Amino acid sequence: MTRDDLPEDLVEDMLGIAPGSPLAALRARRPEARRHAEGAYRELLMPEDPGNVSHAERAALALRVALREGDRALAARYRALLEAAGGEEAAMLAEDLTDGMMEGRLPALLRYADMVAARPATVGQDTIDALSAMGLTPRDIVAVTQLVAFVPYQVRLMAGLRAMQGEGAA
Amino acid sequence: MSRFTMEEVGWTPRLPPVEAETATPAQLAALEACPPAQRRSTYFLTLAQDPASLGERGALFNSVMYAPRGLPRADREFSTAVVSMANGCVYCTSVHARRFAELSKQAEAMQRVLDEGHAVETDPRRRAIADFSERLTLTPGAVTAADLAPLRAVGMDDIEVLDLVHSVAMFANANRLMQSLGETEK
Predict the structure, then answer these.
(1) SS3 content of chain B, % helix, strand, coil (to 5)
(2) Nearest CA in chain B to A22
(3) What span, in angstroms and rounded, lies between the C-alpha atoms of A20 and B115?
């Protein structure tokens, strides 16, 4: 899957916000917020130069956070991205929410994702140093942290928009 | 005594920030997308290690906090202070509580919320904003149209509600970045 295969706007595709609808018109009044939410999603999941963190690993981390945050629809999107990147095994690891202590690179990255998403105050210098010791550069670590911290943005944006859709129906 | 304050607090990164003098063109371009007052801060220079994500995320942040009209800036700052408290981010709380106090001249009201939580807020509009901000922060999956009713009751229109949702969502992101990538020092 490449960026060209993605819907123009993830949020509007997921929520069924049709062009010309009142919510589409409202979002159009904040064009930068709309554009850069989609842009951040694409840069974090499918960067042209992914450094040492592959597209599959990125999709696995996003899947994990969406599940932790309880957004099953968003998790399904990330699972599809992961499958397209050939990450069947990675999906099994990402979807195992039991607090295992499995060895290996992806389990360690998933544990970091859990910390940042659910308990960011527990991240310490030792946590970051452990990522460096796995061969991640400062750029990789910032990218992974940005990614893991961005999924909670998407979850709350869509929760708020769903509530507004519900108002319209009421 | 609460751990939250609107005094300035320190933040030390756990990764080396980019040096402004030796930054690459891509790093400088990404910093240009960030709010002008903050783009030379240690925090943004740390995020500049990955310019691709900072360019998009910085522009998103800039729009969410500073886009004209819609939700007044003071309300955005108040909301993000409440979100930062809910997420336990002492640094972000201090910055946005201070900005709210400056914009609204309501430093005493802000201090009470910092000390005792937003349940003590007596201003109906701020109370509605705080309740919704905390709920969307802590239990996004449980938020429904009914949670918007108190915002509508204090007169908020669609663009104000959208701006509030953006602010709350932005600090789900900012609080996690700030706490993970650096150490806050009171």
Answers:
(1) 70, 5, 25
(2) B158
(3) 46
Cβ contacts below 8 Å, chain A against chain B, sum to 172
Q: Cβ of A160 and B176 within 8 Å?
A: no
Mean predicted confidence (pLDDT) in A89-106: 85
pTM value is 0.96
Q: How far apart are the first and last CA of chain A?
A: 38
Is CATH 1.20.1290.10 the classification given to domain B73-185?
yes
Q: Which domains does chain A have, with CATH numbers?
A: 3-169 (1.20.1290.10)
C-alpha atoms less than 13 angstroms from C-alpha of A111 in its C-beta half-sphere: 16
Nearest to A54 by CA among A66, A62, A46, A42: A46
Question: What is the C-alpha radius of gyration for chain A, rounded to an integer number of angstroms?
Answer: 17
| Residue A132 predicted with pLDDT over 80 | yes
Bridge-based pairing of strands B182-185 and B10-13 is antiparallel
Contacts of A103 (CB under 8 A, 6+ apart): none
